[in-house]
Amino acid sequence: MLVKIYPENPNPREIDKVVNIMRDGGLVIYPTDTVYAIGCDALNVRAVEKICQMKGVNPQKSNLSIICYDLSNLSEYAKVSNAAFKLMKKNLPGAFTFILPTSSELPKIYKNRKEVGIRVPDNNIIRTLVQELGNPILTMSLHDEDDIIEYSTDPELIEEKYENRVDIIVDGGYGGTEASTVIDCTTDDFEIIRQGKGELIY
Question: What is this structure's pTM?
Answer without folding.
Answer: 0.95
